[in-house]
Each structure stands twice: as C-alpha cells, then as structure tokens.
C-alpha cells in the first residue's frame, strides 16, 4: 500500500492559530466531500477552536491511568478500524503517557500514514530537535517534547501559520490563549517581544532551509549547474567622485526588487589617485548609505579593481555596482582598460552592473601620477631590446648618415625607454644602442673596434646621458608615488577622525576602521598592568578594546604590533603588514592614544558631575527636612497635645483615633527619614552591600509586610535559583517599588512575577542574571518621563508632598546598582507599568528543584503562590496552542 500524505501546520509559538487553521482546512476538505475525522484535537479552553470541532466526526480518545490520574490519548486502534480518508491529529511532537501504544505521537501518525490515512497535524518550532538548544537559550525554557527534524522534513506539505508578535501579545492580553491568572506571567516571560520575534525568525529560517533543499533537489534532478543565489548582497564601488550618489541610489533600487538583502558601499583608496577625491562627496555618500540601511567601508589598495573584487568576495557578494563614464577616451574604449572593465573580466560568479553616468571625468578618469609598476618595467625592457634595432634599420635605409646622426637618434630612443621603463630598462637600452652604433656607424664598420678616440668619448657621453635621464625619471616617479601615498594616508586619517568622532565609543570606532584600511581580520588594544574589576590579564597584558577576531597578545618586535606608549600596544591580525603602511599604523596609534586620554577626561568629568549632584542632593535633603517632615511632626504634636489636655475628656473611640494618628504619622516619618538617610548614603558612595546568596522568596514576605491585603499577588516559579544580593537592601527595593505601585495604581492589583527558571535573558557584565518583575495595570508613565522617574524628589503629576518626598524609586535604583544589578521600567501590555529587577545569579551550587519547592509551602498563605508552567509556556502535557 502506498504511503499516505502528511501535512503539518508549523507555528513559531503557542497561540498563533495552528489548531484553528488545521480545523478550518478539515472543514474545507469535508465540504469537498472528503472523509475527514478528528482523531485527536485539543481546544485548550478556547471557544473559537471548540466551535470549529462542531460538525466534524470525532473519534473518542483512549483513557490511560497513570500515577492515580487519568490521561486522554489518541485511540490509534479506533482510527485504524475507522480508516478515514483524512485524520486530524493535533500536537505532532506530543509525548504519550507511559503504557501507550507508542512513546511519541509522531510514531502514531507514522502508523496511520503506513495504513494509507492522510494526516493533518501541528507542531511548534520550539519542538524541533535541532532548535532545542537555540530555543532554550532564547526563552530559558528547556523543551521536554521534541520531534526529529528529519521526521518533520518528510512531510509532504508544511504550512507556516504566522502572526506578528504584537498581535500575539494582544491576543494573550485579551485572554484568548491562557486564563487570566496566567497572563501577566506569560507576558513577562515566554511571550516577551524579543522571544516572539526570535522564534518567528527561527521558524522562517527553518522553513527557508527546507525550501532551499527542495530547490537543490530540483536543480539536481533537472541537471542545472548554474548557481541560483537566494540572498542578495550588493557591493557598490565608490571612487570619491560625485557619481557615487547615483551608484548608491541605483544599487538601493536593485535591492528593493528582492526580498531581503544587504547593501555595502566600499571606497577603494589607491595611492595613485586621491588628488581629485572629494571628502564632502564621500561623507554625503556615507550618510546616504546609512540612511538606506547599508554599511560604508574604506579599503586601501594599489589596484582598485582587485581591491574591490577582494572585498566583494570576502563579504560573499552576489552583485557589484560600478560606474562607467560616458566621457571615456577613445583609447580606453578600444583597449578595454579601466576599473569597470577589469571588474567585469575578473568577477567570476558575481554579477556586475556598470552604471553609465556623465560625471566620470571628474572622479573616475583622474590624471594618474607616474607609477613604475610591473607592466611599465616589462614594456620598458621590451622597448630596450626592440627599439634600438628599429632605429638602426631606419638609419640603414638612409642614403647617407654619420655618427652624430646615429648617436642622436639612438639617444632619443634611450630617452623614450627611460620615460617608459625607468632606470634599468634605460641602462640596458643604452648599452644595446651603443653596441649597434659602434658596429654599424663607427669606423671600422662591421666590427666593435673603435679607431678614433673621439668616438669613444661620444659613446661614453651617449651612455651617460641615457643613464642620467633614466635616473631622473625613476626618482621622479618614486617621489610622486610617495607623495600620492602621503595624500592617501592624510585622507584616510581625516576619514577615520570623522568616523571615530561620530561613533558611540571612539576607541572601538578607530579599531573597526583599522580593519577596513589595513584589510585585517582583527584589531585589539592592550595595556600592561593589573586587570580592572572583573577582568583578567594574560602575559601581563589587559585587553582594553577589540574589533573583529581576537588578536594575539603583544609580542616585542611583532610585525603587526604598534607601541602607543610605554604601557599600551595596538595589535593587528590577519596578514603581515608591509613596511609602507607602518607610518599609517603609527598615526592610528596616535589617535588611539588621544582617545584613551579623552576617556580619562570623561571619567574625571563624570566624577566632578557626581560631586556636583551630591551637593545638589544635600541641598534637596535640607529642603525636604525643612518642609516635608513637618507634616507628620505636626500631626504627632497635635494628637499628643490633645491627649495631654486635662480639661478635655475623650471617649475611648476618640482616644483610639488620636493614637492611630500618632502611629500613622510616626510610620510616615520613619519611612521619610529612612529614605532620606538611604539617599544620602547612595549619593555619598557610602553604601556597602553585604553580598551573599539570597533566594527571592526569603525577602519577598518581609518586603510585603504591611501592604494592603488582597492588593499584591505573587507568581514565582518553584525552581528560581539563588542570586547574589544584600537581603536587607533587596527587601527595601521590593517594598519601595510595591508601595509606589499601590500608591499610583489604586484600582489595580500588583503582581510579582519571576522569570522562567529564575533566569533572565539578559546578562550583567557577562554573568547570567535572575529577574523579578513587579507589574501594575494603572495609568502608567509616559516614555519621556521614565528617566526622570528614577531621579530623587520626583512625584508623578506633582502630587501633594503629603504622599512622600519622591525618593522611593531613587533609593530602589541606587540599592539595586550597589548590588551589581539593574532596575528598569517597561510599559505593561494593556496599560500600566512593569518594574524589572535584575541581579547576578549566585556562583554557588544551583538549588535542586525539590529543595526549592519546600519553602513555598511555608509562605503559601502570604504569597498566594499559584502553580503554572515555567515561563508561561504551554504545559508539557499539552504542548500546543491552536
């Protein structure tokens, strides 16, 4: 019996609508008269999905008892006995309960396919075995249910069910994926924008790979040998002339015709042609490339065509765009010489677009400096051999000639050889010409003997003049080449200075430009001495900054090592740097030295600014003491004064009210003084955190003590690992944030959510971090006010000072940073504010899952702990979401 067909509906995440799309297809097939049954499908509590199952024949699932619990699995025997034309089987990667017919559901599907039953099924990209590690690194959730990629790739059709991450989060917030008590935790963990975007890209790339496999199979079957590049990468060759903008825009239009691709502009700076470059035009072209989403590069090369092709091949380019002038000379048109023609000739598999423009005479057909390259030298030697013979034949055709005519004619030929080939070809030509003149023109003719001494002097003068002319030409060409190289170096330094000044980190900006200019793979800056905080040294050297691949440690006398000062070295890796580029490398070192000094000056300015802010803080504290503290003191004084009046008799209720006022004002005063003292310690750098391994659930109950009942809910995964923190400081941080949320979101509950497994997708100085999110659904904070919110003495909408002095979040941020963590704010989906606390994970032994569960029982009353799948992902037993 022929194997039936398998159609899989692939999704990037739960909730994108795979089950829904599969059931819609089942209804479509049933409407065409096909025999369709639902062998197994789950609605996941969603009414829309449940409604689609109406009208379809459903085969009841098989119930299996396992560990005193009943589970439902697909009844394979019932489906085989029914033998429909098409069977709908949800959750292709599902793991069956022990005792089932097969260990995996995809194995059940294989039986149906072998029996001739076509199958519709669903799978998430997170369940593909090859992507398990990648998905785990993105979402911090290890998937227990996987299916081999080869099994999925054997499917006859794969349909991608895709929606945008924004729409998926909106569906989740509307309660269309999970129940209300799981929404906040899911939004804060598995369903983050970054996670969903990455998973969506993984699904698209995985499916694109399968398309590529199909294309390769087709080409193999059809015997097609030509390459069919699927992704475009276009390189633009810029000459420094005004035509560059035309080329950039033309390349951008070419790239728009394809789905995706890269745009790279490269300016090849040759040592013989920078005189007519326009720095203003190059800067305008660089900005244009950046605006169009491309990248700009500068490389140095003696041969522009070769350098352009080398760069294109290094970036795996598919197309090259170069300009060709309409004003080329007739010789250039006939000989085919020029950068564009050479690029076309040597491009190989890379397509070349030669864009015609009228501006080439200003930036492309530059007057070349004299440069005695290999070609000119070879031509000079050829002329030295052939030209004297031709001139001698010309003399032989003359009816009468004397020695003076012969010497002058051959001297003219020697000068021509010197102008073309330089010193050595001219010397060869002079010696060869002198022998011809001696043999054919000086008596006795036909021999090399010279009878007249004057003729000897004439020959010596002839050879000397030829050698002198050749030497002058050679020195002139060499100096011209050196001057051109100097201009190229000066222009390169100007470019790197402009580029570095516009970069966020100028040291890294200079190192990146060094990679392009010197065509290296890596550049690094090292300093001698002890390592900084958290850093290490190797061989007595500390890495300050790097670009590209890792460069080796500085070695005395290294070919690519530049000594900037006594304790700083610049190291390049990739190729041996020629001696001609050493001066330019020294200039890079000088610029790097200046940038390091600028860093030190910037650090000094920050310190001065910090001292000024401390001064301002002290002034603000004095103002707070003189104004904001008076309110609770006045309340206490009035209540105590009333109780001390002997002539006034209060009822027990009135006395309790006065005592409650005293207690309330005392508590408010305690909080105000505590925050003021904490802020003073933070601004004076006297905060010393006692870092030790801490569990989140150790500090949360104490931090929430005294909060209004029913206002705070906690959803913590049971396996959250330890973090490095000061327990007292962390307590104050959580308490201040929760108090702030309750104050400014009076109509909303406050939810504390832990990251999946306790791990955050972000790192702190390269260390993994733990994360706690405090979520409210209040009015939120405008984006432009988020930074100001963490500054001292700030109140939302300038609320009255009786509610506090505006130090709660400033103290929380200061304490968090003192513990080596971060405190940030994000918008809550649907409205509100989410405060995110990130702290480094402890370097101690991770907490076993069973040990982490035990303390939760003790705190279940305080925290109202709710059990849910880690990170808000689907429960492992169900796995999918339609």
UniProtKB/TrEMBL annotation:
It is an enzyme of class 2 (transferase). Pfam families: DUF4118, HATPase_c, HisKA, KdpD, Usp. One of its GO terms (molecular function) is ATP binding. The keyword Electron transport does not apply. InterPro entries: HATPase_C_sf, HATPase_dom, His_kinase_dom, HisK_dim/P_dom, HisK_dim/P_sf, Histidine_kinase_KdpD, KdpD_sf, KdpD_TM. It catalyses: ATP + protein L-histidine = ADP + protein N-phospho-L-histidine. SUPFAM superfamilies: Adenine nucleotide alpha hydrolases-like (SSF52402), ATPase domain of HSP90 chaperone/DNA topoisomerase II/histidine kinase (SSF55874), Homodimeric domain of signal transducing histidine kinase (SSF47384). SMART domains: HATPase_c, HisKA. It comes from Arthrobacter bambusae. Residues 624-843 form the Histidine kinase domain. The chain crosses the membrane at residues 377-397, 403-424, 456-477. One of its GO terms (cellular component) is cytoplasm. It is a multi-pass membrane protein. Its EC number is 2.7.13.3. This is histidine kinase.
């Amino acid at each position: 019996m022929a194997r039936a067909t398998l159609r899989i509906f692939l999704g990037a995440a739960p909730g994108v609508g795979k089950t829904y799309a599969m059931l819609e297809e089942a209804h479509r097939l049933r409407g065409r008269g096909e025999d369709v049954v639902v062998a197994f499908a789950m609605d996941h509590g969603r009414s829309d999905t449940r409604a689609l199952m109406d009208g379809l024949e459903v085969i009841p699932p098989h119930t299996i008892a396992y560990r005193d619990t009943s589970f439902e699995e697909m009844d394979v025997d019932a489906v085989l006995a029914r033998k429909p034309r098409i069977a709908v089987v949800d959750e292709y990667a599902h793991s069956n309960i022990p005792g089932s017919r097969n260990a995996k559901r995809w194995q059940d599907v294989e039986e149906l396919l072998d029996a001739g039953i076509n199958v519709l099924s669903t799978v998430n990209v997170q369940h593909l075995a090859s992507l398990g590690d990648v998905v785990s690194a993105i979402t911090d959730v290890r998937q227990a249910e996987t299916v081999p990629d080869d099994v999925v790739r054997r499917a006859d059709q794969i349909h991608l069910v895709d929606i945008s991450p924004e729409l998926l989060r909106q569906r989740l917030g509307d309660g269309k994926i999970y129940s209300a008590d799981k929404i906040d935790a899911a939004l804060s963990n598995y369903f983050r924008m970054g996670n969903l975007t990455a998973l969506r890209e993984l699904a698209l790339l995985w499916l694109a790979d399968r398309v590529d496999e199909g294309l390769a199979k087709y080409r193999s079957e059809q015997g097609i040998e030509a390459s069919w590049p699927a992704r475009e990468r276009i390189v633009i060759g810029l000459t420094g002339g005004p035509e560059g903008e035309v080329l950039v825009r033309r390349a951008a239009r070419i790239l728009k015709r394809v789905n995706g691709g890269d745009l790279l502009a490269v300016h090849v700076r040759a040592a013989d042609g920078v005189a007519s470059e326009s720095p203003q035009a190059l800067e305008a072209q660089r900005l244009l490339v950046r605006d169009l989403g491309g990248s700009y590069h500068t490389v140095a090369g003696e041969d522009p065509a070769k350098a352009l092709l080398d760069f294109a091949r290094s970036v795996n380019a598919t197309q090259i765009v170069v300009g060709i002038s309409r004003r080329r000379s007739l010789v250039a048109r006939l000989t085919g010489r020029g950068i564009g023609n050479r690029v076309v000739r040597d491009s190989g598999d890379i397509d070349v677009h030669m864009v015609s423009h009228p501006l080439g005479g200003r930036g492309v057909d530059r007057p070349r400096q004299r440069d005695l390259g290999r070609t000119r030298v070879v031509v000079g030697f050829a002329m030295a051999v052939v030209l004297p013979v031709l001139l001698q034949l010309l003399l032989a055709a003359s009816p009468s000639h004397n020695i003076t005519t012969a010497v002058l004619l051959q001297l003219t030929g020697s000068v021509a050889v010197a102008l073309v080939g330089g010193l050595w070809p001219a010397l060869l030509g002079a010696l060869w010409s002198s022998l011809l003149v001696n043999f054919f023109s000086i008596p006795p003719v036909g021999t090399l003997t010279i009878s007249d001494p004057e003729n000897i002097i004439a020959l010596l003068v002839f050879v000397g003049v030829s050698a002198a002319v050749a030497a002058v030409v050679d020195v002139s060409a060499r100096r011209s080449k050196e001057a051109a190289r100097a201009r190229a170096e000066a222009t390169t330094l100007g470019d790197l200075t402009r580029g570095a000044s516009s970069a966020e980190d100028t040291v890294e900006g200079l190192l990146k430009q060094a990679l392009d200019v010197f065509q290296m793979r890596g550049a690094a800056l090292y300093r001698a001495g002890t390592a900084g905080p958290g850093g290490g040294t190797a061989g007595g050297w500390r890495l300050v900054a790097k670009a590209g691949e890792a460069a080796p440690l500085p070695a005395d006398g290294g070919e690519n090592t530049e000594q900037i000062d006594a304790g700083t070295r610049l190291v390049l890796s990739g190729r041996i740097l020629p001696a001609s580029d050493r001066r330019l490398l020294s200039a890079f070192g000088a610029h790097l030295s200046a940038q390091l000094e600028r860093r030190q000056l910037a650090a000094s300015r920050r310190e001065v600014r910090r001292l000024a802010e401390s001064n301002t803080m002290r002034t603000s504290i004095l103002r707070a003491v003189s104004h904001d503290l008076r309110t609770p003191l006045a309340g206490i004084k009035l209540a105590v004064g009333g109780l001390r009046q002997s002539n006034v008799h209060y009822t027990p209720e009135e006395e309790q009210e006065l005592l409650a006022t005293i207690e309330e004002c005392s508590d408010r005063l305690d909080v105000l003084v505590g925050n003021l003292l904490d802020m003073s310690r933070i601004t004076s750098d006297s905060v010393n955190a006692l870092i030790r391994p801490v569990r989140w659930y150790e500090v949360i109950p104490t931090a929430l003590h005294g909060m209004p009942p029913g206002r705070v809910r906690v959803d913590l995964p049971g396996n959250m690992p330890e973090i490095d923190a000061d327990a007292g400081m962390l307590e104050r941080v959580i308490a201040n944030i929760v108090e702030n949320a309750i104050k400014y979101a009076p109509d909303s509950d406050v939810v504390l959510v832990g990251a999946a497994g306790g791990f955050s997708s972000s790192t702190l100085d390269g260390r993994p971090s733990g994360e706690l999110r405090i979520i409210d659904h209040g009015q939120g904070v405008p984006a432009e006010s988020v930074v100001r919110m963490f500054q001292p003495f700030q109140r939302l909408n300038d609320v009255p000072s009786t509610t506090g002095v505006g130090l709660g979040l400033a103290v929380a941020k200061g304490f968090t940073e003192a513990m080596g963590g971060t405190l940030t704010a994000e918008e809550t989906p649907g409205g509100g504010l989410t405060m995110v606390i990130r702290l480094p994970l402890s370097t101690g032994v991770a907490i076993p899952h069973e040990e982490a569960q035990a303390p939760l029982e003790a705190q279940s009353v305080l925290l109202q702990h709710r059990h849910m799948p880690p990170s808000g992902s689907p429960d492992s037993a169900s796995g999918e979401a339609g």
